[in-house]
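Before surveying the methods themselves, it helps to consider a single example record, giving the amino acid sequence and backbone structure tokens:
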Amino acid sequence: MITDRQDRGIGSELVRRLRKDLREFYMIDLLCDDDVIPFYEGLSFQRGGGMAIRNYHNQSGLTG
């Protein structure tokens, strides 16, 4: 789904700035949906395998 805010370079610029801020880190891991993989590949990210657990009941930051 393309919105009126896409194709303006805003997301690419945000990722470039984030990478600049994190340039001293050895590793930056990113998990994303399959449909946006080409976007990140265009910004020099490489595919990798990964898994995640989401505890949605803790999403608000409250536990218990």
